[in-house]
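Batch manifest, entry 17 of 40.
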Amino acid sequence: MTRETWKTQVGFILAAVGSAVGLGNVWRFPWMTANNGGSAFLLLYLCIIVLVGVPGLLGAFVIGRRSKRNPVGALRSLSGGSRLWGAFGLLAVCTTVLLVSFYTVVGGWFVRYTAASVTGGYFAQPGAYFGSVSYGLPAFGFALIFLAATAAIVYGGVERGIERATKVMMPAIVVLLVALIAWTFTRPGSMEGLTFFLSPDLAYLRTHFLDILPAAVGQAMFTLSVGTGTMITYASYLGEERSLPFDATTIAVLNTAVGVLAGLLVFPLLFSFGLDVGSGGPGAIFVSVASAFSTLGLVGRALGAVFFAVVLLAALSSSISMLEIPVAYLVDERDVSRGRATGIMTGIVVVGAAICALDASVFSLFADTLVNLLMPTGLAGFLLFVGWVLGKNALSEYEAGAGPLGRALGSPWLLFVGVPIPIFLLFTVISRLLTTLGVSVAPLSVLGVTVASSTAVLAAAVVLTAIAVLGLRRPDSVF
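Output type: structure tokens
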């Protein structure tokens, strides 16, 4: 079966940015920012994007382009047929199916709110309206509408479906966001929202660093689509002439810019209407923004329809990339036609979406806990693979098509993804796992020296990374 490729570099970048932007930036980013100190979260998040996200994105690109396969086939073939690495790739595929299950439900919310904006359906009682439509059979029905649109585009393939759709959707998202921001800045009180979002609060960051860190890492992994194999799959359709450092940097910059645009819209809007930015959880953006638009009568209906349509486009761009991963697995590894593979995986997602739509606790498990645990774990595994299994071969793939500056940074990049970043990611995973399980690590006394709980967690991350390195090290490894 002939494997598809991206027709243009712009198509690949926009598709990758579309995957990265999605609800991660427009829905989840404002939610996480509001719950974690506003500008303090933003500052830490931006640092993680630069120091972890971009190198991690490059690692995924190297695996994908070198293998020309999905995560399962990529790790298995590049490791010399290792079943263990193939199983790790399959875990990434399964993680994606879990994520797209809850994602489909949120996409259904935006389908419903776009339509309800036109009729003013949520204007009377925005909070009660969200509570009545967020879960249950009606929510599942709207999720099916959203999933059908996603499946139709994935069925069309890489060039005719994904590339063509994202070339239209991504510019439209940016244009609509900028227009809404311009209107929001005319509202009284909007500058307070800008201060909350952009004015660095270093005191809050120092005090709550370990609380903010897992959320910021999970958000960075989610919004850049690293850790589940999405970018491995997308890069597998790339040609050797592309500069991976340039593409990764461009995608990260554009993705972060859209996230900042979302913040520039949401927080000034909420402050201008005197609404609480830190309440509401996953429904915060619906209740808050709907409350704002409900005060504007017919104008509010029009603005609401435009806003929720923008987020719907963003959601669709990400769900496309998520569904493409398991579809590519069936096409590459099982020799299933794209049409049949799309049908099979859509059916599986229907079951997952039904569970999430009918049970709020399962939805929260998928949307919060699993994102913050599975995605950093997945990226740590991918980067250990790059540094210690591919090693010098990863460096040669990185340098193919790269310019002088990109090639000069190749060796430091390989060392960075092979040791410090996995340690950092495992530190955040262990910290979040302990928090999730309600386990408190008391300070330890070692040879009369008191060791803080965070230092103990860091030591555990270092030990785990060292064990992995010793087990994976080969003649061609990073060192």
